[in-house]
Fold each of these.
Amino acid sequence: MNKRADRFLVVGFLTILFSLLALFIILPSRTFSDTENRKLHQLPQMTWDKIWSKTFSSQAETYFTDQFPYRESWVWAKSILEQSRLQQENNGIYRGKDGYLLEKFGEPDKEKLQQYAGAIKEFSEKNPDAAMTFLLAPTSIGIYAERLPWMANSYPQSKVNSYIGGILGESLTYIDGFDFLTPAASKEIYYRTDHHWTTYGAYLAYRAYCERMGWEPLSKDDFDVKTVSDSFLGSYHTRGQFFGVQPDTIQAYVPKNLVPVQMTIVDTGEVSSSLYKPEFLLKKDKYSYFLGGVHALVTIKSQVDATQKKMDKLLVIKDSYAHSVIPFLAQNVSQIDVIDIRYYNGSISEYMKANGIKNVLLLFNTTTFVNGNEILKLKY
Amino acid sequence: MVFSSLLFLFGFLPIVLLLYYCSPRRIRNVILLITSLFFYAWGEPVYIVIMLFSTLTDYRFGLLLSRPSMPDRQRKWVVAFSIFVNISLLGFFKYADFLIGNINAVLGTDIPLTNLPLPIGISFYTFQSMSYIIDIYRGTAKAQRSWLDFATFVALFPQLVAGPIVHYSTVSEQIRHRTVSVELFAQGVRRFTIGLAKKVLLANNIGFLWTTISASDIQTLPAATAWLGIIAFAFQIYFDFSGYSDMAIGLGLMFGFRFNENFNSPYMAQSITDFWRRWHISLSSWFRDYVYIPLGGNRRGSWLQFRNILVVWLLTGIWHGASWNFLLWGLYFGILLIIEKWIGLRFLQRLPKWMRHVYAGILVLFGWVLFAFEQLTDVTAYLQAMVGGNGGPLWNQDSVYLLYTNAVLLVILTIACKPAKLRLQQARPILQLCGYGALWFMSIAYLVDATFNPFLYFRF
């Protein structure tokens, strides 16, 4: 009896080891992971330099794990095991109530906040003839704290936003996202499965900006609201890998009074006549429908007619929350230059001088703002 | 490369097994040595030289000691010199910066730090080499004639990185003559699987709880969370370390080696004396055999015995890391052991069993606080939080959340602390296959997930 068990075990063990090794060798190397939205590591080159500095061994290990047979299925299995042990979070994502996935938000480092806000303040003082607005939008956990799992706790983003507001003082116009999002909290202003706001949330941001600038914003009736996708499983879903999550819908607000636009992605030189890229709706990364995803520098020219036009030139310094806001702004502003500070490496002050820019909108969500020291690039 | 990495499990291990079992017996040690050196060089391409140096010198010293004509005085010098070489290596790489830092702090000097990384496994292989030399001196082992066989003993990859510290006398026979059988190999598979599951499923996951709690503000930590945190740490360090030892012992069995045990359900201890008989046995027995007993042990009266206990436990403490908190941790246990020897044990025996468990458990937990934080200010803040002395609430919302989301895991961990009578081993073959298979399946899932790294800002 025991002998049989021993033989079973040895054979089983060797089968697991060798069959996974064989599968790893046989299965073709994949270059891209849809779920993870990144390039997968390939077999590293072996050089003496790399061997001595241990880069070869660490690259080889990443290559092996990246190309591990049935990678996605293992990740999915782990998520099921985690949920079955009552764990309410996975990879930093909470499984909240009403189908909302929420990203953990811990207490940020006050010193860093001071640095980041200081950089913005300095930037505004360095360019005194430009009118600047800073819009800081909370992410879904900031507004939907009551949708957290039972007893789960999150550091209030509202505290961060007012702290930043306090530091900035009167140095520029500050719009705290809580002011216009909290009253609309009962509506769908955030995706349930992604870290972005919905088009409606973006519309509210546009309206708040117009009001602060003293403009009459377009009303919701000026748009036809179209559902362009109902199968959006966003970044929170990707990270959390929870099962039984309902996909989101993506809406486009199509203006009834259509304005011709021309968008130039300066990074690649690509020019198009639409602010939307429907081809992304067929991919995993559906939010890139807006503006075609992240680029260092994009310029948008729109032929706004005189009745709607409020401004000639606007520079938007932003993270991806701005992508769904910019189509609204393009209804009122004839040229919008969009810089993603995380990828743009020139001096922004120089850029403003060279292009005669007098109006700036800084738009970030609280999580990116707190975690990214790229904002310090404003100093250059 | 660690045992709990996918590349080791599905790359290195199958290839080594294949090479080993396909080659004739007489070259199997060479295969083991070459693959072990590859295993070491994978993580330490430069420092492998140090390991080979240590091996070569002790091999020569061993041969020297075995010359029958050598007078005892000279033999003592050889042993002393060998110990000096090993301790210098260990001292230079492990303790130089700690020493320099303290000298700078006390004397206000500005000696630059060496900033050298610690060579992997150096704390283990220097101790093993020393045990070899001392065993030969004492005559409990014979010097190894072949350098190849001696190098295989030191570099043997299953125990090279994190022990157990194998005494030369334990395996001296096995290096030349070892039997392999399906039974032994299956036993190795069982042991390895259990170790892998302990590390990947238990230690890593409870480790997240400890990371969360120790990263939060200790000054305002509620007592309940502080206790939960240190219990999590206690589980993490035990299942991590004993899991690694299990994997090492299991791998040893697969190649025909029988290493000594390293843990014996330490959290079932009924006193601190008992705890140290069950925790990291290969290290405590090393210190017992090579420091405590040579110093006179308990044979020269109470005072000298107390001194010897303190010396051994200060050394044990500092062995764990070059930092004051480890020294303090050793001192803490040294003092507790002295108290137990002096009065405690007689008193303890009158208590009911459950109270003895609670007594040992609480003292061990307080010890882990010393172990977990390098900064003494953090230690005091954490201890204060545990006794509710920081003015905060006894518990809050976070305590409840962390407790219920880890409740299932905590129950499993508690059960796993009891000595398993290896019920699975006597189960029907098919059940065994399913049981161990499930552990593998879950471990792989967690290992792959740990490398899961979604890229959220979509640009390449």
Amino acid sequence: MSEALLKISESVNDGICVITPSGDIDAHTAPQFKESIEKNIAAGNIRIIFDFSSLNYISSAGIGLLNAALNSLKGKGGKMSIACASPSVHDTLELMYFTKKVPVRKDIDSAKKDI
Amino acid sequence: MTTKGCMEDTVKTRTGYAQEMVKNIRILALNGKNNFRKYLFDPLYEAGWYNDTSRQSTLKLIERMKEQETDPSFVHTIAPQCKRLVCYSMAEGLSALGNSSIFFLEKIQWDQRVSLSNESIEFTDIIMPPLNEFMKLNSESNEKLFTEAVASAKKDEILTAFEPVKLSSGGEKIKLDSEIKRLYNNIQIASRYHNIPKCMKLLSTYIIQYSDNEDYARGDVEKLIDAMTKREPGFDAELKNTMAIDLYYRIRKSVHSGEIRTTIQAIRKYGYIFEGDSSAKHFYDIDRLERILYKIITEKDLWKELKKEARGQ
């Protein structure tokens, strides 16, 4: 199996940070995703939207990172939301019970209302 | 690093290896006599450990050693006795060899004087390379078995594997509250007697059991781990290893016996406990199995029904 690739773009507007991973989040790319999340939280970006419009796959390693981010943000009075997940990514998040913790919105504007 | 620091690290490393080797021997036992002979019996035989002069059974010898355990003056005799036990058990049979080897490895984890003895070092040096070789070779067949198990699993079996933990129901919440209180009490008692392995076992059992539950007392557990790590440096890292090895063992064992539900639940628990920490043991092995699982769920067109289960419909 070929190694998964991940590209991450980030933007901050009006105090809201949008993190957009493109590709797969699995064991191989999780450290890169983790670095992006931690860097933003450390920089004081505690209102985060994960834009999953270009995400093809997420494993429990990635969902574990989202869970860690959620706990970290809660501790700092921050919030997170998820937007634009493909059906397969949405399915995985749901199966891992993560949608019970953070709802998945259909677009960025709806996600903004959560945070 | 000081000599004491070096020694502590050596003990921890050897203890960690011993714990992993116990699991590896258990997995080896699931893989037939030929493998057991090749990867455990033969290396010890070639090292000259075989001894057929004992008249007592391995179980009897183990029982007698257990009776002596409480006597502090007995500690320095454990490793030589364990070596003799393993040597004698080789003549008795493969099952006896498995029991005696696991007993020795458990004693290595039990007391650092045992883990630093010449006999322990000799024993682990003999069996570790072949066991590692076996685990590496077995990893591929593990994936194949997993693929076959999931592919041939009945629809209902996969669906129940994803059944949610009962979230926030009154009874479950009360149970979790009382469990965390019990954990605090038991750890307090164990730590009073400086029984670090017991504290670790209590914590790992609790975390593995409840970490994917919505009412999991994460804050309390973290406080306990911090307190134990202040008292025993490296406790947190050892605990991580213990849990990763335990979950990986559950996964491999359940893959082998076709218990798909246990496999899937252990994968999910691993995800929640290690939160994408790539330094966790078996991180990549488990990730590969997960990809296989999702691929088959897609092929079997089970997502829709699985989601219904997850929603509790």
Amino acid sequence: MAKIGVFICHCGENIASMVDTGKLVSSIAEHPGVEVSTEYKYFCSDPGQETVKKAIRDHNLTGVVVAACSPRMHEQTFRKACAEAGLNPYMLEMANIREHCSWVHTDMVEATEKAIEITRSLVEKVKRNNDLEPISVPVTRRAMVIGGGVAGIQAALDIASAGREVVLVEREPSIGGHMAQLSETFPTLDCSQCILTPRMVEAIQHPNITVMTYSEVEEVDGYIGNFTVKVRKKARYVKMETCTGCGDCIQKCPVKKIPSEFECSLGNRTAIYTPFAQAVPNVPVIDRSRCTYFKNGKCAICKKTCQINSIDFDQQDTIESIEVGAIIVATGFQVQNTAGYGEYGYGRYKDVITGLHFERLASASGPTAGKILRPSDGKEPQTVVFIQCAGSRDVSKGVRYCSRICCMYTSKHAMLYAHKVHHGVSQIFYMDIRAAGKGYDEFTRRAIEEDKAGYIRGRVSKVYEENGKLIVRGADTLLGRQVEVEADMVVLATAIVPQPDAKEFAKKVGISYDEYGFYNEAHLKLRPVESSTAGIYLAGACQSPKDIPDSVAQASAAAAKVLGLFSKERLEREPVVAMVTDSTCAGCWGCVEACPYNAIDRRDITDRNGNLIKRVASVNPGLCQGCGTCVSFCRSNSIDLAGFTEKQIFAEVMAL
Amino acid sequence: MSEPFEPKIVAFVCTYCTYAGADLAGTSRMKYASNVRIVRLPCTGRISPMFILKALQKGADGVLVSGCHPGDCHFAQGNYHARRRWTVFRALLAFTGIPEERIKFSWISAAEGAKFAELINGITEEIRSLGPFEQYQELQTVIETQSTY
């Protein structure tokens, strides 16, 4: 026997000026099931809410309709009031007679008529509301960070220092990412590795952080608070537990001419190697495809050299299954291959290099010990031309977006070049100079004023070789003429693009990506570190091109989100979720496929002996977001959405 | 002088886009015809053709279904399902004898308060010119007079 309380708010003059509230009260009072029908100036105020609570208690109301503003405004307020009065908070509906009625109509008679119908329809709906309890999902309070670059390391350190366990997974043999490859960072000209390596060491030594290098994520299963991740630890063929990092094996390895990935092929490495001298962990890895022992069973010098018997050719990949409650994706970026721009000559001329190559040349621990030398003949270039926007901001061929870091690192390169080659001349072809960060514009001005970097506003049409020099032909639009520069080296500020397997990885993890392969945030302005999947967060350049300060900030933000998630043992969720009626479910799986959140599983129903009776759909209340797509899909009406059930909606419609 | 016919229009809208857009029209004090009654759903994906038919059966002269723009659904894909269902449902309308013009489908985002107001006014006028939807009432009468229960 329904006993509904209807509370009609005046909202001061906002409703009362256009809706005859007295008429509304008396009209609704006559509707079957309505026990209380009353009005008040401001129901959302304290005395207003007290009136509602008192009515609930005095009349033992089974449901409440507040006819007032939009539910998007005060639904939570009144749900709380109901709960405090002892009524299940989901036995409340709000009739929107303000935004949808009094504020948008000019005829009082019509507006009142409409208000009556709206209120009546919601009374019918609330009669069919069910008591709902918030769903409580347990949370595994361990996080996984995928990607060991500066963003991943920062996120791991933040979570670990708050007392929570973190597993940091990195697919290269060492953590550090691209930041480890840089020489000096803008705008401070800090030596990149000097500021990064302490963090790397802190991460690997931190008791709460488990660093898994040379490991890749194979599979992600589960949902927020309850993920199970399978990680493949690739075989290093070196025992991590005993290796001391002495480096003898690397010294003695006879295969010495493999182009080093870390050095962007400007230098070489051996078959057993660490990617760079400051690698963390400092344990080498054998490149199976180039190792003589793996190719024909001969050599094994490293094993003979190792004094603590740490080489193990029989090591196998292992798969570890790890339970975590949240995942931060910090997989970073790669540099675009500019060979597609034939006019720049990349790939054709050895002395046309990318910004990342220049970093390795400038780096004190790089292949040239910090000297800027031409890759072709090892001579010092006297004139270097830098080309900005080599691939970015291009509608026709490259990528449409701005890669954000190139203006800054190009001016930095010009400065480093000037510091190292005192009489060197640098010319930078630019479209704009984007120096928006803190200290950034001052930095670029320093390059121009102190280090005499020459900026030419215009695009380059062609780079070609003549008499051993690279001729760069372009336009100087400020002077309005064509320009030709004879250069010894050309540095392209290439676009930064997502990792080559960014899209496959996103599918594996269950997050969405944009047309370029950058990962989608939940809301571009207001939720920049959450992905579209609950429990999975984003940090760093995998979400969009960004520099180190922004990557670090985003990583800390993602860590804060994770710590917020971990602040309670259980996660409470709105109970507007779907439910399956097992008896009528035919197991057609239409709902399983329709669900955008993969929230519906298949469940076996067995008898006491374990024989299978049938398989039905089963909604995971931890994942269901309450959209209702499955409900309209179901051919046998076996699934319904709490809060918007079939009965509720039909009742609402019929009462109109 | 008889009163002009006032059509009754039922609008099934999604909470996150069109309902919010209607709220915006309200907060901006835009004025539109008072013939529409909004039924709030979490997502257009929740809408079943049965709701539309029930509304028409119970006296609505026109029905509007409105949700988030394709690609912007708060629940990622619900509006795609709604669009597909609508495509199939439209083909069935001819079979049921309901004129297609009485059922409208639109995309209105939470920022498009003005568009919502315009749309309601436009639809109200259109349905007004189509006249009251009496087929169901006629059918009901036939059943009642011919029924032997």
